[in-house]
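[09:14] KT: can someone run the structure on this one? pasting the chain below
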Amino acid sequence: MSFFLTRQPLINHQGKIIATRLRLHAADGTNSASVVDTLNGLNDCWPPSDRSIFVNFDSLADDMGLLDWIAPANVTFELPGAPFCTDHTAAFVAALKEANLSLCYNFDAQAAQVFGSGAAFRFIGFDAASFSPAQLKALLAKTQPYGIPVAFNVDTQATFKACMDAGMTAAAGWFIKQPTTTPAKQLNASQAHIVRVLNLVRKNADVGEIESALKQDVALSYKLLRYINSAGFGLSCEVQSFKHAVTILGYNKLNKWLSLLLVTASKDPMAPTLMHAALTRARLMEQLGHGLVEKSEYDNLFITGAFSMLDLLLGVSMEQALESMHLPEPITDALLGNGGLYAPFLDLALACEAGDGATLADQAGMLGLTGDQVNRAQLGALAFADAMEM
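[09:31] RB: done, structure tokens below
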């Protein structure tokens, strides 16, 4: 396997995900032929969404072989200046124009040569860790004619705000993991109600009792049916009622999908973005567990991933969020950082969001997983989260 993928969401000033940024972490000496062969092999699980997917090729900076990738239509090639400053630049630019690719130039010291090469860029990317807000504003004024400005590697809410104030159209990074408010002392009424329904399902309460609890919140019932009937669920028939859902799914599967309602109960402006991240983690952990844990554990891996951002989504501490929920011990242990069966899967899901390819490879190795298995699971998880957005 020639590389591992890590990802960042690209978020606009309204807090909405408009694209995903993937970074390739290849071993030293990896050539483009190996990378392209692997990328072509991933096309069958590539997210089909219209949402752009930036793919960073810094590790293959001056190798024209990357153009042999039969890239899906939603891909934007993210390139540094190096390939535009060689003896083969004219041929490289001609090949880019022939392929009619969506391009993002990662702004660097070669900017003058890059902008003079004749290449057409859709985006200009700026590393927020390398430039101050004032520098970004000045650079934006100079580069605006060449492409839409976006910021990368934005790790704090303050940096995100500064990038938006400087005129960036969007920013990629995990600043959304920072809480925007002081944690509350308890769940709000809507959240507490969902927890009560979840606990009824986990206790295998009578269908009528659970249905009565659901009917106390019409919006809750409606949202549950929307999720069950969504493209991400993949049922062959439409579920018309809660009783119908129990008949088709059973209590265990219903528990999984009711858990999503708690994830969506937040009123935070960033909630849709956080939910997308949580759903991606959930599906990723579920997929990574195939063949490594018992089938009966798959749904619990999903719930662990989905609940891994409950503190941010609900605005309470993780301990407070879990206090009134009767979750299986392995889920609670993983979410509270106490190890256990599911913890390595959560650690691997978190590593897919970091920028350290070596750590990601180590985490995958601990579970005996290859880069191809992790990459395919991650791309499939992104497609799932996209399909679940409503």
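[09:33] KT: thanks! The chain has a mean pLDDT of 89.
[09:34] RB: yep, looked fine to me
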